[in-house]
Amino acid sequence: MQEKELEVIKNAIRTIPNFPKPGIEFKDITTLLNDATAYNLLINHLANRYKDYNLDYIAGIDARGFIFGAALAAKLNIGFVPIRKKGKLPYTTVSEKYALEYGYDEVEIHIDAFKKENARVLLIDDLLATGGTAQAASNLIKKVGANCVEVCFIIELTFLEGAKKLEVPVYSIIKEG
Ligand code: AMP
After folding, report:
1. pTM summary value
2. 82: cis peptide before it, omega within 30°?
3. Within a domain: residue 8?
4. Which of 133, 155, 174 to mutate to test ligand 1, by most ligand atoms within 8 A of the CB atom?
5. How far is the CA of 116 from the centre of ligand 1 (A)?
6. Mutate which of 127, 138, 157 to test ligand 1's pocket (most atoms within 8 Å of Cβ)?
7. Across-strand partners of 25?
8. Is 25 helix (H, G, I), strand (E, B) or coil?
C-alpha cells in the first residue's frame, strides 16, 4: 500500500483514551467506516492482496471483524463465516475457550460453517492485541476441518507481541508500537 493511502486509513481511525477502562487506548474504527474514501481504500487494498490466494471463505471475529470480513468476502465473491461470542449462534457449534487478563472468554463457530473440505480460509479482525482471540478463532477453523491460511488485522499493537502467539501467518495494515 502506498504511504499516502496508508495515511488516509490511519487518520480515519480515532483513539479514545481510557475506554473501556483506565489505561486502555481504544482504537475506534467507526470513524473509518464513516469515511467512504478510507473504507473503500482499505477494502480494495485487501481485495487486491487476497485475490490470488485461492480463498474459499473469509471468517470474521465478532463483532468488528464482521464489518471488514463481510465486505471483503462480497468483493472477492466468496462466502463469509461469523465466529461469534458464546451463545449467539443458533445451530450446532464447536467452541474454544481462551484466557483473558482476568478469567476466560469463549468463541464459537457452526459445525458446518465450511461446506468445502479443507477450505482455504482468511481470518479477519479489526485489531490484534494479545492474540488470544485470534488464536482461539483459528483453532476453531481447524477444529471444523478447514485451513486458516492467514489472519489479517487493520491494526496491530506491536508492543503486546500478539503476533508471536499466533500459529498462523499474520498480516497487519497498521502497526503501532
Ligand atoms: P486480543 O485477544 O488481546 O488480541 O484482543 C483482541 C480483541 O479485543 C479484538 O477483537 C479487538 O477488537 C479488541 N481490542 C483489544 N484491545 C483493543 C483496543 N485497544 N482497541 C480496540 N479494540 C481492542
Report:
1. 0.98
2. no
3. no
4. 133
5. 30
6. 127
7. 17
8. strand
Q: What does the pLDDT read at residue 102?
A: 82
What's the full length of the chain, in residues? 177
CATH number of the domain that residue 159 is part of: 3.40.50.2020
Section 47-70 average pLDDT: 98
User: For ligand 1, atom 15, which residue shows the shortest CA distance?
Assistant: 129
Question: Is residue 4 one of the residues assigned to a domain?
Answer: no
Is residue 45 in a domain? no
pLDDT at position 1 is 87
Beta sheet of 170-176, edge-to-edge order = 93-99, 104-110, 79-85, 57-61, 120-128, 147-157, 170-176
Q: How far apart are the first and last CA of the chain?
A: 19
Q: Is residue 165 part of a domain?
A: yes
**Residue in the structure block whose three cell numbers are 457449534:** 93
168 contacts 150 by C-beta, under 8 angstroms: yes
Alpha-carbon distance of 86 to 137, in angstroms, equals: 12
Domain limits for position 94: 53-176
- Cell 483473558 locates to 100
Tally of domains in the chain: 1
